[in-house]
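Write out the 3D structure for:
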Amino acid sequence: MLQLNAASIRDRAGEWEATGTLLPQFDLEAMKAETKKAPVWVHVGAGNIFRIFIAQLQQELLNKGLEKSGIIALDTSSANQAELVYRPFDNLTLSATMNADGSVSKEVMAAIAECLHADSSDAAFMDRAKEIFTAPSLQMVSFTITEKGYALKDMKGEYLPAVQKDMAQGPGAPKSVMALVTALLCARYEAGRLPLALVSMDNCSHNGEKLKASVVDLAKTWVEKGYVEAGFLDYLQDEKTVAFPWSMIDKITPRPHKKVEELLAADGIADMTPIVTANGGVYAPFVNAERPQYLVVEDRFPNGRPALEKAGAYLTDRETVNMTEKMKVTTCLNPLHTAMSVYGCMLGYTLICDEMKDADIVKLIRHLGYEEGLPVVTDPKILSPRAFLDEVVEQRLPNPFMPDAPQRIATDTSQKVGVRFGETVKSYVAQGRSMDTLVSLPLALAGWLRYLLGVDDAGKAFEVSPDPLKEELQEKLSGIRLGEPDTYQGQLKEILQNESIFGVNLVDAGLSDKIEQMFVELLEGPGAVRKALQKYL
């Protein structure tokens, strides 16, 4: 059996290549030595999209001889991925790209030189982290910690308990990710105001702005309390020393799938079984994902950067990044994903690709994207919105070898609808377009609210995916029952007026009546969801 480790890919390269697996074309030990001597790139958040996409960019540059240094990963997970799937495999990852034709392209990702579990109570970790962050050679710190990772406050606008402690105790022993990063930036400042770029690569709008706001907020508090000198704040706010470039990232990376595990075992690759933690987390030495991937980054790096454009990334200005992000999240991908996920859950689907065999769901997302989205789409010029949408609808979502689930996509929907649907509503209002022309958008929102009842189209209960507003919204919908449309007595009005959810007051925008009407129709009884899709589309 083949083992995923440095000795195996060196000593048994021929056997690896016989399985169709691509191997790194650079000297791993030389790369690690160079990274130790002169670190260039740190990544915070050691999850799957980092392992199969972001680290792959540096691997390509290493393979081409354009870079000598690898990436140092900071694992911020409570599960300690560093011990679960990094160290046992010499920081290697087996990448499994699931092609639409059913084939799987395999590659050993080896650009990660080191992975450290971020634990401020571990003196050895803090010493090593400060050593890295105070290196003059360090050019960038990138992030994939999800949008929630940047949050300092809860939905009530109050600082989270861990953040309150970090603000009160200063940079000595930071517990939250943002406080840890701020403390390490303080060390870099004290080492001589060394320049750096901090690049959020998370899938959220204005991600660089969110990252900067959190870091600056913590720094201001520490300055006010006398923990750090005022010059630190000036350092963070001077774009010539510390930059927070915006980015747009796109690649669907589902959880490790059984059929990939089985395929790798059939190839004679040992120990590929995923580890399931007590809280339901799934971690594996392999990562499966689709082939299409996009990374658009604002080109602002005060201390230089790797040649990411030579690995397929787009380096451009902030306006273009923003337009690309807006194109994707408001029109060409994310609204389609959300609409089909909530309807898929109610119709009993467990795979996105299976939903794409359902004519009614396909009509919903095609109408949402092409008929209602493209007329107001933001065109970034570097990518064609229509071509992007074509790829999503014709290749990415129907890919039968991408084991993604509507239940996963439906997670945290309350945090997404404001951008995914609210921005289109704003565009219609701004351009004077009639709300009467919108059909699939209000149907998607009515479907989400109907989904929150936790009852499918057959009348059976199901588990609503996690969402920070789940309990609050379900409380507002309490008393509404499937098969009893009369139990709806205007309970949606307050929700539809909530601009913090939708980004716009849907009552004032003139869309609430249609959503309420559709919602009531979705309540008529078993089969009502299917009936409404067919009626309106």
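The first helix runs from residue 6 to 11.
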